[in-house]
Amino acid sequence: MFSCAKSVKHSFLAALLLPLLTISWAAAADFHNAISLQGFTGLLNTPNAYVTEEGKGYALYSNQEENKWRARTPHQDNYLLSLGLYDHVEIGGRFFDAPGAGRDLSFNGKLQIPFIPRDSLLPQFAVGVQDISGGKGANLLRTYYGVASKDFWRLRLSLGYGTGPQRMEGLFGGAEFKACDWFYLVGDYDTRETNLGARIVTPHLFGYPVNLHVTVKTSVDYHPGSFEIGAGLQFPLGYTHHSTTPIELPPPVRDEALPRETSPSHPPAQATSPVPPPPQEKEGERSPGVTAGLLSLQRKLVDQGFQNLRIGTMGGSLLIVEFENSRFNQNELDAFGVVAGMAVAELPDSIRELRLISKKKNIRMLQLSAPAAPLRDFYRDAASLGELQAVLTVSETIGDDAGATYLEERGDSSLLRSSLVLYPGLKTYLGTEVAPFDYLLSLDPELYLNLWKGAVVNALWDIPLLWSDNFDDGNRFRSDRHESRMERLMLFQAIKPAPGIMALFGGGMVTHDAYGTANEAVWLLDEGRHRFRVMQLFTVDDDDRRRESYLGGYRYYHAPLETYLEATAGKFWSQDTGVMLELKRFFGDTALTVYYKNSSAEDHQNHQAVGLQVSLPLTPRRDMSQSPVQIRGSEEWSYSQESEIAKKGSWNYIGTSTGIKPVTPYNIGRVFYNRDRLTEGYVRENLLRMRDAYRTYGAGNR
């Protein structure tokens, strides 16, 4: 009986291998690259050579029991995640809880070999790893593998080889048949068992780009007809808001024939013909048409909630708009887009060039300059994007405005304006020795009060709301739950001594029981492509214990992929010393960060960990105005999970906290540089977002 089953399996693999070596002239159908019951993109228990689509994510629950321990566990719960980090790269994670067998948190990765056209005669290839962790018992499902896949009409065949020893040890393979757009028949051999199943993928739910995914599977070798299921969702990781919808703009107002207002030293200009050429404004004079346009623009920008406005002209044809954004908190480009759109919609045709200068805490941060005509054309029709990029200038160096004439009345001041930011605090323990999952949910109100230029008072409270049983009195994590209290009260002062150089000094109550200073400085080079950063912290707590932290870091930004590579080294918050490496990728306003830590803690032990962090805004794209008190959500709320890389012969239980940077949420990158995106490369790659912001929030308020 055993030999018969083995023969069937070998025949099954031979049937898979033969088509991969032949040429098919049938057109391949578009397959949905679904997540398997193991967490990687694939069939049932084996991978194929495809990856989760870039910018998409899969979250799945499965009750499948691993064959290596199903005899000693009553049930198994699996929570799977797969993320399309790049066009050919997926990363993912898996947590399972199997009573009597163990529980584990691990990470997966897969790379699809690029440069093979999807419509070529060659199969697609991919390599990957399952269960990145380490140590005795930690690599419960470890394997490295390579796999090839080829589509033939409605049939996709996959064949691969795994190294084991925990999973897929040897030759594996499978087939997927697309019966229709939403229904697939699936079968595979994972070197232990042959599995058969079906998969349903729904269309978008309720008009949103979210798909429901259900997989049903049975093993041919173990209780055939006994089914295990997987159910979850596919979802976008973020929205780019890159609108190309045409926008109707009024024609430029002609102001040539209007009488001109002058200073006493300049007599009024006289019209010499019915349609004279556009006037060239001399210093101290401006036509009533331009003045009326400036006043109208200022009024509408104030209505939009912009502060510290300063609007004027120079040389008769240059418009200068300085503004501070406090409403479009998801992305500073939304503010640029609304200001630029309103400017080109309001001003007469004598204005030939625009200079837009954004501020933060009344400090000039970035300047965008462009001729008015290509900017106006771009807002009307996104097809002229290339023409605008060719003439657009983006720089931290602010242009000289000597000789500019500004409106006497300035826009709304930010002095003594405040924001109350409300967001959840979430502390979780996943896969500990006491429970599969524990949580502590709190409310974190955070107050910001603007003082003088660059100065802010920041106060944070933490109010516990809900928690799991292990945070109750007398239980394991009770010491991690405290009563409601103030966590921070600090005064921050930011200065910008030169373009690309900025420092932030903070002092006060750094934590609930410690006072001291938290400072940082950054230096941006090559329009933000390179960044150097230093961080320092010093505190003394109520028991006169001192804590010092010193860190230095370098970050490289690759604009076409919106990717950040950063290395940080020194002494971290928990007094451990070592290095942290990060790869961060933005999808719209959502950032995914994969990181690695290696440091020596106060216990004199070396600790290594890998983790995944997601950071996203928990506030609308446009918040309420800042008068008298702005109540809003956080522009960057982060949640992370990490797994310690255990040493050989040990388990990867939760260990010492390491690699924590001594930086408060009020920091240079987040507050002043738009979450480290206020750079030339980022602006040029996301100009379509500017016109989308104007189309959504400004076009109806001209």
Protein described:
The chain has 702 residues and is mainly beta. The protein has three domains: 2-236, Porin, CATH 2.40.160.40; 288-414 and 686-701; 484-681, Porin, CATH 2.40.160. It contains eight helices and 32 strands. The strands form three sheets. A 14-stranded mixed β-sheet has the order 31-19-20-21-22-23-24-25-26-27-28-29-30-32, with no helix packed on it. β15 and β16 form a beta hairpin. The protein is globular. Mean pLDDT is 88; it is low at 1-6, 15-28 and 257-284.
List keywords for this structure.
702 residues; mainly beta; Porin; 14-stranded mixed β-sheet; 8 helices; 32 strands; 13% helix; globular; disordered N terminus
Give the arrangement of secondary structure elements.
Elements: H1 2-20, E1 56-62, E2 77-86, E3 89-98, E4 102-112, E5 124-132, E6 143-152, E7 155-163, E8 169-180, E9 183-189, E10 194-201, E11 211-219, E12 227-236, H2 288-303, E13 307-314, E14 318-324, H3 332-346, E15 353-360, E16 363-371, H4 372-380, H5 385-391, E17 393-395, E18 405-406, E19 418-430, E20 437-450, E21 455-467, E22 485-498, E23 501-511, E24 514-525, E25 530-541, E26 546-558, E27 563-571, E28 577-587, E29 590-600, E30 606-616, E31 629-632, E32 637-644, H6 668-672, H7 680-685, H8 687-698
Parallel strand pairs: 14-15, 19-31
Antiparallel strand pairs: 1-2, 1-12, 2-3, 3-4, 4-5, 5-6, 6-7, 7-8, 8-9, 9-10, 10-11, 11-12, 13-14, 13-18, 15-16, 16-17, 19-20, 20-21, 21-22, 22-23, 23-24, 24-25, 25-26, 26-27, 27-28, 28-29, 29-30, 30-32
